[in-house]
């Protein structure tokens, strides 16, 4: 059986994904240089809207790299979920803990007389 | 061949062994799980960066003031252009890699050779660019002063533009000899001496009444800061670094403890000490991945040239290194966002 025999060459899709990734990068760079005030100065759930857009576009790019370039879309769902789900869960968990803690320590330093730069 | 590329049976022998519940060969599966663990390592680093950044959210350096260099454009502030170019190079080398994998599936040796070669070239350019980026980061551009309390002071003119130490520091007749290990009673040396001494910077600052000091603190237009008489409210902009009045600048500069030029693991002229540490560690770890990826690609490239996979009847090895190479690209996408955009 071996999935190699089912493999379909799809260079047009590769170039299409390259186009998407390039466009997203260009948009990111333009936004990063202009930093429009309406997005940069606004706040939403602890970050500016601009930063949320950056993270959203990054995950969009990551999806295409993993699913198209690493050919995850052609793998069995068992492999897909064995790889993707633990990573997503553990990263969200880690980020939640560390960012909450970082924000808390910021508050401790801000409201007390401790000055300790490390 | 069976030992290098395992193929499962498709017959209805669920408990007979040789099954592949995930439909991938052993080598490919292990590459995927290596990538999972490596992805978690990188997320640990990036999450630690986020932790420190949230901890020092008011004083963290602004990326578009740090990475402003472009080759052959001296003195031009070009934030992000170069790193965007690096990103393109890496994405493009990912494209050639996936094209090589694609050609391998069709057993087209010549095409695999060409695309693998392009991938290696792209990886080499990327590593070189990163080295250049590091060089600029380590060398620094303006220089700064660190105070006794550990905060960093930078210099601006009356328009708020950055001023380098070299542009105003006075030249004093003083001699300061580098203290070396061989002279120390406990064989302890010191860091390389900065170009200017603290006294020279302070004297130069006295002589230029237009100069002001910019602190690390990011300006927020809160009611308290708005009435703060120590802040120059014309030059301090929301979400930019706070500029002090001349009187307060003189007071702050009197507390100088170090002249900081460029960056090392202890202190850097951009701001928070941890910023440079994380920059070196995370981009360095990523650069090391790119470097080892290039080496592995070269090995596989020669195997393709020698016809190893042609004889084996399968180019799966190209696919496996391809997975690793795309992973390196994937990590860069996140490093790019976290260090340069956000």
Automatic annotation (TrEMBL), chain A:
Membrane topology field: Multi-pass membrane protein
Residues in coiled coil: none
UniProt key word Cell membrane: yes
The protein, known as: Cytochrome C oxidase subunit IV
Keywords of this entry: Cell membrane, Membrane, Transmembrane, Transmembrane helix
GO cellular component: plasma membrane
Superkingdom assignment: Bacteria
InterPro entries assigned: Cyt_c_oxidase_su4_prok
Compartments reported by the entry: Cell membrane
Signal peptide positions (record): none
Membrane-spanning ranges: 14-34, 46-66, 78-100
Automatic annotation (TrEMBL), chain B:
Family assignment from sequence similarity: Belongs to the cytochrome c oxidase subunit 3 family.
Membrane topology per record: Multi-pass membrane protein
Protein name: Cytochrome c oxidase subunit 3
UniProt signal peptide: none
Domain Heme-copper oxidase subunit III family profile: 1-342
Domain of life: Bacteria
GO MF annotation: an example: cytochrome-c oxidase activity
Cellular location(s): Cell membrane
Keywords: Cell membrane, Membrane, Transmembrane, Transmembrane helix
GO cellular component, one term: plasma membrane
Main location: membrane
GO biological process terms, semicolon-separated: aerobic electron transport chain
Ranges that cross the membrane: 29-51, 80-100, 112-132, 278-302, 323-341
Matches recorded under InterPro entries: Cyt_c/ubiquinol_Oxase_su3, Cyt_c_oxidase-like_su3, Cyt_c_oxidase_su3-like_sf, Cyt_c_oxidase_su3_a-hlx
């Amino acid at each position: 059986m071996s999935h190699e025999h089912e493999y379909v060459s799809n260079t047009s899709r590769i170039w299409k994904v390259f186009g998407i990734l390039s466009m997203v990068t260009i948009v990111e760079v333009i936004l990063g240089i202009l930093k429009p005030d309406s997005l940069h100065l606004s706040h939403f759930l602890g970050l500016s809207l601009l930063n949320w857009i950056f993270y959203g576009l990054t995950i969009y790019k990551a999806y295409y790299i993993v699913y198209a370039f690493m050919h995850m879309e052609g793998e069995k769902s068992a492999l897909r979920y064995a790889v993707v789900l633990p990573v997503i869960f553990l990263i969200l968990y880690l980020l939640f803990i560390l960012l909450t803690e970082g924000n808390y320590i910021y508050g401790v330093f801000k409201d007390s007389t401790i000055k300790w730069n490390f | 061949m069976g030992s290098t590329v395992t193929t499962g049976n498709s017959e209805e022998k669920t408990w007979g062994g040789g099954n592949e519940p995930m439909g991938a060969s052993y080598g490919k599966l292990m590459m995927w799980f290596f990538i999972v663990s490596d992805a978690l390592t990188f997320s640990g680093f990036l999450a630690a960066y986020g932790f420190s950044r949230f901890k020092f959210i008011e004083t963290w350096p602004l990326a578009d003031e740090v990475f402003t260099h472009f080759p052959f454009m001296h003195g031009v502030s070009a934030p992000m252009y170069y790193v965007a170019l690096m990103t393109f190079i890496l994405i493009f080398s990912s494209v050639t890699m996936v094209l090589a994998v694609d050609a391998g599936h069709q057993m087209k040796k010549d095409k695999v050779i060409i695309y693998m070669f392009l991938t290696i070239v792209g990886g080499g350019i990327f590593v070189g660019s990163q080295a250049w980026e590091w060089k600029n980061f380590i060398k620094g551009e303006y220089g700064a002063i660190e105070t006794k309390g550990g905060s960093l002071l930078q210099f601006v003119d009356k328009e708020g533009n950055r001023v380098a130490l070299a542009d105003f520091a006075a030249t004093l007749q003083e001699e300061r000899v580098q203290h070396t290990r061989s002279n120390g009673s406990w064989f302890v040396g010191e860091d390389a001496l900065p170009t200017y001494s603290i006294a020279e910077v302070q004297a130069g600052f006295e002589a230029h009444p237009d100069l002001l000091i910019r602190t690390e603190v990011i300006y927020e237009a809160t009611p308290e800061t708005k009435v703060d008489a120590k802040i120059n409210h014309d030059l301090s902009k929301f979400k930019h670094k706070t500029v002090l009045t001349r009187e307060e600048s003189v007071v702050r500069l009197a507390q100088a403890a170090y002249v900081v030029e460029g960056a090392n693991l202890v202190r850097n002229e951009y701001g928070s000490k941890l910023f440079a540490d994380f920059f070196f560690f995370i981009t360095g770890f990523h650069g090391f991945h790119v470097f080892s990826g290039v080496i592995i690609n070269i090995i596989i490239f020669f195997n393709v040239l020698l016809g190893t996979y042609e004889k084996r009847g399968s180019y799966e090895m190209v696919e496996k290194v391809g997975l690793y190479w795309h992973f390196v690209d994937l990590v860069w996408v996140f490093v790019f966002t976290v260090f340069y955009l956000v």
